[in-house]
Design goal:
By secondary structure, the protein is mainly alpha-helical. 60% of the residues lie in helices and 4% in strands. The protein contains 27 helices and five strands. The chain has a three-stranded antiparallel sheet. A two-stranded antiparallel ribbon has the order 3-4. A hairpin with a 4-residue loop joins strand 3 and strand 4. The chain is elongated and about 105 Å long. The N terminus and C terminus are likely disordered.
Length: 564
């Protein structure tokens, strides 16, 4: 079957009317047609014209003309009706496959993206990023440049003036009976710039303090600690030796600082096993302040859960976390562990209580999870009102997932009346915070609201550009939708090869629904064209992977993450 398209006829037909003329030929060969695909047109050969003209006999003409009567005329382009009008100035041809493909594209309905509510259970992702988020939520151990933790005894300094300490130190020096306590405190006050030392430069104070410390025949833990602190910026290797001596002597601040240093801070090479060793010393040290001990327990719990410096051990992690400081991130992690039965018996009700505590303490992720619990009746009674309250609370405190969930909620009317306008508002908020799911949901709602054929070329071009941005970030549905727009030529030129490439990427990223459309596009290309399309697909896919790697590296750098 050939379909002949007559773009302009002169025999009683208006010039602005396009008539689809279908010529049925019972048997024909490639010799009966001369197709020029580049011009999408052909000329009838003598034999083909003869066969066509046979259909102009009275009986067939009458049958054909009957199809011009309403309502059949409206259906005519899709019917196999033998009709040819005399006086047509040019004739275009399409094969059955081409007609089928065009009809398929025109009638194809865009699949909706998956729009399910999202958990914000990042603590359960055993990644370096999650581990660092937990650790950074803990009260930090002081760095050596922070002098508050350098001073061993404020009560001593408050009761004895700088001049008294200085006098005692000088008398000891003259008598040759130098004690750790007096000399170390004097060195500390010199380093901090007390008395006449306030006029000295930082470098001069460091040199003077170190000279005083070197006079001590056998330094104690604190003097080693102070020597390590003062030496660190100039000679870090020597400073670590001093600090390790102080840690071995049971000096808790030295143990705390070394734990931080061995996590890669201040330029010290990261060594998770050494960091964990220092934390264990810290929690077992009777001299460790309560606050530092609680922090150390939380840190050890995180290391055991994420397998940092030791193997993954959920039971050990849960026991450490039970002794740790009550910070929202740790409470949320514990709540999720109880919910999933990790390291302890699963208990949805008890889990919701812990998650509620984390939410009330300010965890946006926990508030989002609590909202889902109220929506689904998990560990708590179903309450759409409370679900919405906690979704809003979570969104207002930074949860992107909660903003997206509110969009889904308003779209389907789960906890609130359905409203496209409200759904769009919340999707827009989540998209502004980087949510790909929210971005593609906005695009889909726009397409569904205005319909494809109502778009102006400018509007379609903007949507196509937005889809490309999302597709380039690795969103599989956006790749699929972009492929469809590209095949149709909406928002830009039609391009079968590029359309195929984006559809192929969508399939590769897990969106199997794009396979049928991709395969239909493949049948419209020659082998060389298909090879070029596949090559383009690979190039685009490689760029997406590279972009994702670079984006992750930027996130890691911003968070000061050293990869495991």
């Amino acid at each position: 079957m050939l379909i002949w398209h007559a773009p302009g006829c002169v025999s009683g037909v208006s010039s602005n009317v396009v008539i689809e003329v279908v010529l049925l030929v019972q048997s024909y060969s490639s010799e009966t047609r001369n197709i020029n695909k580049s011009a999408a047109s052909c000329q009838l050969t003598a034999s083909a014209w003869l066969k066509a003209s046979n259909w102009l006999k009275a009986s067939n003409w009458l049958k054909a003309s009957n199809w011009l009567k309403a309502p059949n005329w409206l259906k005519a382009p899709a019917l196999s009706v033998a009709l040819i009008l005399a006086g047509c100035s040019s004739i275009e041809t399409r094969t059955d496959a081409e007609v089928s493909y065009i009809s398929y594209l025109d009638s194809y309905q865009l699949n909706a993206p998956a729009m399910n509510m999202q958990r914000d259970a990042w603590p359960l992702e055993r990644t370096e990023e999650s581990y660092q988020r937990i650790v950074k939520s803990l009260t930090p151990f002081s760095l050596p440049v922070e002098t508050a933790d350098v001073e061993p005894s404020f009560s001593l300094l408050q009761s004895q003036s700088f001049q008294w300490v200085k006098t005692m130190a000088l008398e000891e020096t003259k008598a040759g009976k130098i004690t750790d306590s007096v000399q170390t405190h004097y060195a500390l006050l010199v380093w901090l710039g007390y008395g006449e030392n306030s006029t000295l430069t930082h470098e001069q104070r460091e040199a003077k303090a170190l000279k005083l410390l070197r006079r001590i025949p056998k330094r104690d833990a604190f003097s080693n600690y102070l020597a390590g602190v003062i030496t660190f910026n100039q000679k870090p290797a020597l400073a670590l030796a001093y600090l390790n001596r102080a840690a071995a002597g049971g000096y808790a601040p030295a143990q705390a600082l070394l734990a931080r240093f061995y996590q890669g801070e201040s330029g010290v090479p990261r060594d998770d096993k050494k960091a964990r060793s220092m934390l264990i010393r810290l929690v077992n040290n009777k001299q460790t302040p309560v606050g530092q001990k609680l922090t150390a327990y939380g840190w050890l719990g995180a290391m055991s859960f994420y397998g940092v410096g030791t193997g993954v051990n959920d039971k050990v992690a849960f026991n450490y976390l039970n002794k740790a400081q009550s910070v929202p991130a740790l409470q949320y992690l514990q709540g999720l562990m109880v919910s999933e039965g990790l390291g302890t018996k699963a208990d949805k009700k008890a889990a919701s209580k812990r998650i509620a505590q984390a939410a009330m303490a300010g965890s946006a992720s926990a508030a989002n999870q609590l909202a889902l619990d109220y929506l689904n009746g998990q560990g708590v009674a179903v309450s759409p009102r409370k679900a919405r309250t906690y979704f809003v609370k979570a969104s207002d405190t930074g949860s992107v997932a909660a903003a997206y969930n509110l969009g889904v909620d308003h779209l389907y009317g789960s906890a609130t009346p359905a409203s496209i306008a409200d759904a769009t508002f919340w999707f827009d908020r989540a998209a502004d915070q980087g949510s790909l799911k929210a971005q593609r949901s906005l695009i889909y709602l726009t397409l569904e609201d205005q319909r494809w054929y109502d778009f102006s070329s400018e509007e379609a071009a903007l949507l196509r550009a937005e889809l490309q941005k999302a597709a380039e970030r690795g969103d599989n549905w956006s790749s699929y939708a972009l492929g469809l727009l590209t095949l149709r030529g909406q928002g830009g030129a039609a391009d079968t090869q590029a359309g195929y490439a984006w559809l192929n990427i969508a399939v590769a990223l897990g969106y199997r629904q794009a396979a049928e459309l991709r395969d239909a596009a493949a049948l419209q290309m020659t082998r060389p064209e298909l090879e070029r399309a596949q090559s383009l697909s690979q190039t685009l896919f490689d760029q997406i992977e590279l972009s994702q790697e670079q984006e992750q590296e930027q996130v890691n750098q911003q968070q000061g993450v050293a990869q495991l």
